[in-house]
Amino acid sequence: MTEIIDGNEIADRIKTELEVCVETLADHGVTPGLATVLMSDDSASETYVNMKQRACEEIGIEGRHHELDPETSSDTLEGRIEALNENPAVHGILVQMPVPDHVDEQTILERIDPMKDVDGFHPENVGKLVTGDPRLKPCTPHGIQRLLAETGVGTTGKDVVVVGRSNIVGKPMMNLLVQKDDLGNATVTTCHSRTDNLAEKTRNADIVIAAAGVPELIDGSMLSEDTVVIDVGVNRVDAADGEGYELVGDVEFESAVEQANAITPVPGGVGPLTIAMLLYNTVKAASLQENVDVDLP
Ligand SMILES: Nc1nc(=O)c2c([nH]1)NC[C@@H]1CN(c3ccc(C(=O)N[C@@H](CCC(=O)O)C(=O)O)cc3)C=[N+]21
């Protein structure tokens, strides 16, 4: 029987443990604060930011949401980030991606104080991760590490195929998985749109992490019965009944679930872990900035 991995359950467990850290901070007069910045009318982006704010509330993190008109200049956005950098009540800053075309994403990421960079996208945090001294780990890849550990799959000695080479998932994922630690120690192959014989590579993997941003790219025929499949895709496609949309992953669930050893569903798999690790980073950032030791899960 293929195991369907319950991301919500693992995320809830981590959140419960983070609540204890928030209490420790409170004993020292500190309330962790997360600022989210949204510069988009996109309804998916709005949904995700709302989910992040709600999750903060659940565990006692103070969320502050900033909305900017999509026409706002890059200078104005950068000014807003500067103010958040200087605000001591704000320990974490997240600018929801994507930003509009007239704003350069990399410029924005580099404006965020690296100590407040709860996405882990600032070059300083990327560099620290690659050199084996991670500070704030990118949320989705970190969540996947936790998920693999919590389900007992583990990563040490495993052949992992990462499909996708983005800065937010694929590249940090491959770097985290080769680290010399219990959440790493894997042998990693990173595949992408120019990879020859993708199916051959995924079929030989112990773990496949699908993060290409292509709906249902990976199907059951590309997997072996021993493969653990982690689906990072959150693609909105038109609903079959013509009403609204439905969420599909980068994995074709129906065929993959017949074949694989274990699989994460969409929704209810990686997504909830991403949010839990955002809370984790916010608590960690507060602990570092306020010099209060907490027992992070
Ligand atoms: N600066 C920045 N940081 C991000 O972390 C970031 C971002 N920009 N831009 C967009 C992506 C997307 N993302 C998701 C997080 C959680 C779910 C999630 O929890 N999804 C639910 C379902 C949600 C639904 O029903 O639509 C689930 O999978 O169960 C999805 C998507 C974070 N992102």
Question: Describe it for me?
Answer:
- The chain is α/β, with parallel strands linked by helices.
- It folds into two domains: 89 residues, Leucine Dehydrogenase, chain A, domain 1 (Rossmann fold); 134 residues, 3-Layer(aba) Sandwich (Rossmann fold).
- A six-stranded parallel β-sheet has the order 1-11-8-7-5-6, with helices on both faces. A three-stranded parallel β-sheet has the order 3-2-4, with helices on both faces. A two-stranded antiparallel ribbon has the order 9-10.
- Helix 2 links the parallel strand 2 and strand 3.
- The structure holds 5,10-Methenyltetrahydrofolate.
- The site of 5,10-Methenyltetrahydrofolate (GUE) has 18 residues, from helix 2, strand 4 and helix 10.
- 5,10-Methenyltetrahydrofolate (GUE) binds next to helix 2, strand 4 and helix 10.
- Keywords: Amino-acid biosynthesis, Histidine biosynthesis, Hydrolase, Methionine biosynthesis, Multifunctional enzyme, NADP, One-carbon metabolism, Oxidoreductase, Purine biosynthesis.
- InterPro entries: Aminoacid_DH-like_N_sf (IPR046346), NAD(P)-bd_dom_sf (IPR036291), THF_DH/CycHdrlase (IPR000672), THF_DH/CycHdrlase_cat_dom (IPR020630), THF_DH/CycHdrlase_NAD-bd_dom (IPR020631).
- This is Bifunctional protein FolD.
- It catalyses: (6R)-5,10-methylene-5,6,7,8-tetrahydrofolate + NADP(+) = (6R)-5,10-methenyltetrahydrofolate + NADPH; (6R)-5,10-methenyltetrahydrofolate + H2O = (6R)-10-formyltetrahydrofolate + H(+).
